[in-house]
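lol forgot to send this yesterday, sorry. struct tokens for the thing we talked abt
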């Protein structure tokens, strides 16, 4: 075995090991079919991305496929808007499914399965109220007690179940339960619900049904109907596995198997659709695609690339224990990707005017500046050099400390891709604030053709004051002030960061004028920025994707 092969073998995650074992044993003829089963009750988030990369990635690696299955058994919270957004996001992440399925496609089949269990004496209609059922359920250490309806005849159960379907009974008045084991230490096996009555309109089946299958009765059976070989879900479903197997065994259907891995949790955010929906509905964010949201659509709008999200999911691996992943790892991944692909541009956000006194008033001199040093083939763009320029306020100090290599009276700096300038005069207003600085440029010092022989230590970004275009820049900080808002006392929303958005104006070099929504740039010395769809012909809007360095870790003293 070569070192490469060894490495490869070592890096198998535990699910890949299971799949490889199955293939070796010829299980299902070596076939691998996974599924990604979102409930269409919200937009996908980065946790779902982990599940998508795992399910689709696994199938791809082993020559199989993946079904996209909408787990739409809960009509009250589901919507087509969510279905459409989910399909869009999965494709955007770079994956395609073999078949698009809906659990609701199987309502007839599931109903038939239920009647088969009734006929086998393995399911019964219970007329007890929810409270009565809960009271008889027992505790993990104390067995449950049978409901008075547990030993109904098959005929009576079939009749009642059919009438449940026909809408003869009120919501909450009856349920269909599996007859398993009231003494089981696994509470999920103590005669779990299979069907409940719900007079709700379903986004696909309309008003055809007034009984809906529970997750546990729908999921495994849907897997079996589709002949899914590896049904991968998150750890909270471990106690459901026995029930998953029980239904499959007693229905004698395709033996799909469930495997569990740890949910992805990220610092400084929340990762549940229910909570994210609250943020949207209560106006804490502008929508599901607010760039502060951990949703795929929010990350996309923020400037994240599919590659960066896939790399992130790869890097965190597949864990067997719940953990909290540092947001800065996600940021590292997008920085790494954009460093390769994003064109460089100059933007000044806190302008200080520089007047180049020895440069002609009306002259506009083009300076060539490289688009991307990581991709020399992308060539140069032109930056206009003029008599009046902007640099950042923080790049000038009137009384600098030692080793301050930026602009200061008497000091020289290089303007990136242009000339070396020297500061000769500081112009102040009546209150003593610096209004502008006067400099001279060194004529033979132009970048690329520098014959000045001067050595300067500081290089600044700059724009032409007359040629620059004002743009809006939306800068984002963590959505929450604490690492794990869900584990704090009280309402998670009490921990929102009130300063998660700040809007500033930037002065951008004219090459940015043609930028289109979705384009990403590195603003030199600042970070990565993506054009927001809110941009108009008159005004470009940029979202700061991420800074150049991990400032947060520094601030937190990490
Ligand atoms: P939420 O609590 O956010 O609604 P969910 O698990 O109810 O999450 P589903 O739409 O039911 O959301 O999930 C679809 C698939 O994505 C499931 O297989 C689920 O296990 C997986 N998934 C959801 N959240 C995460 C996460 N944070 N990490 C990894 N996988 C996840
Ligand atoms: Mg769910």
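and heres what i got for the seq, position by position
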């Amino acid at each position: 075995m070569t070192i490469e092969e060894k490495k490869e073998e070592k890096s198998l995650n535990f699910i890949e090991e299971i799949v490889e074992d199955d293939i070796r044993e010829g299980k299902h003829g070596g076939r691998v079919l996974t599924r990604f089963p979102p409930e269409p009750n919200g937009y996908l988030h980065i946790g779902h991305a982990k599940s998508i990369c795992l399910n689709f990635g696994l199938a791809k690696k082993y020559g199989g496929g993946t079904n996209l299955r909408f787990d739409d058994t809960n009509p009250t919270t589901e919507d087509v808007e969510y279905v459409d957004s989910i399909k869009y996001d999965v494709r955007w992440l770079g994956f395609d499914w073999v078949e698009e399925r809906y659990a609701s496609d199987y309502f007839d089949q599931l109903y038939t399965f239920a009647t088969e269990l009734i006929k086998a004496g393995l399911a019964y209609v219970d007329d007890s109220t929810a409270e009565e059922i809960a009271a008889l359920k027992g505790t993990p250490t104390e067995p449950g007690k049978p409901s008075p309806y547990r030993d109904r005849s098959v005929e009576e159960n079939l009749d009642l179940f059919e009438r449940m379907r026909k809408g003869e009974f009120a919501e909450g008045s009856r349920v269909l339960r599996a007859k398993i084991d009231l003494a089981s230490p696994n509470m999920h096996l103590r005669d779990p619900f299979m069907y409940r009555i719900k007079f709700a309109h379903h986004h696909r089946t309309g008003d055809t049904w007034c009984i809906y299958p529970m997750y546990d009765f729908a999921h495994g059976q849907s897997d079996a109907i589709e002949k899914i070989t590896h049904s991968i879900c998150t750890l909270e479903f471990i106690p459901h596995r026995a029930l998953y197997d029980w239904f499959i065994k007693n229905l004698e259907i395709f033996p799909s198997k469930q495997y569990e891995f740890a949910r992805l949790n990220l610092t400084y955010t929340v990762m549940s659709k229910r909570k994210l929906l609250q943020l949207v509905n209560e106006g804490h964010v502008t929508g599901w695609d607010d760039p502060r949201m951990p949703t795929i659509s929010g990350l996309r709008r923020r400037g994240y690339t599919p590659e960066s999200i896939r790399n992130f999911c790869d890097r965190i691996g597949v864990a067997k224990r719940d953990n909290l992943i540092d947001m800065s790892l996600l940021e590292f991944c997008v920085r790494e990707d954009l460093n390769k692909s994003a064109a460089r541009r100059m933007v000044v956000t806190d302008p200080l005017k520089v007047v180049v006194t020895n440069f002609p008033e009306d002259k506009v001199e083009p300076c060539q500046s490289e688009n991307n040093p990581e991709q020399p083939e992308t060539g140069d763009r032109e930056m206009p050099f003029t008599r009046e320029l902007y640099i950042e306020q923080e790049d000038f100090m009137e009384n600098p400390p030692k080793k301050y290599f930026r602009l200061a009276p008497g000091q020289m700096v290089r303007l990136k891709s242009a000339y070396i300038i020297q500061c000769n005069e500081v112009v102040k207003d009546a209150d003593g604030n610096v209004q502008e600085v006067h400099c001279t440029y060194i004529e033979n010092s132009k970048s690329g053709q520098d014959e000045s022989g001067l050595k300067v230590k500081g290089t600044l970004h700059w724009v032409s004051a007359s040629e620059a275009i004002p743009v809006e820049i939306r800068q984002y900080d963590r959505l929450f002030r604490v690492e794990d808002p869900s584990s704090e006392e009280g309402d998670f929303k009490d921990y929102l960061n009130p300063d998660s958005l700040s809007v500033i104006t930037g002065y951008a070099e004219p090459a940015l004028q043609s930028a289109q929504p979705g384009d990403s740039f590195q603003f030199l010395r600042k970070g990565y920025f993506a054009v927001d769809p809110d941009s108009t012909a008159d005004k470009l809007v940029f979202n700061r994707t991420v800074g150049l360095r991990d400032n947060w870790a520094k601030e937190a003293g990490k």
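Residues 198 and 545 are 44 Å apart (CA to CA). anyway ping me if u want another try
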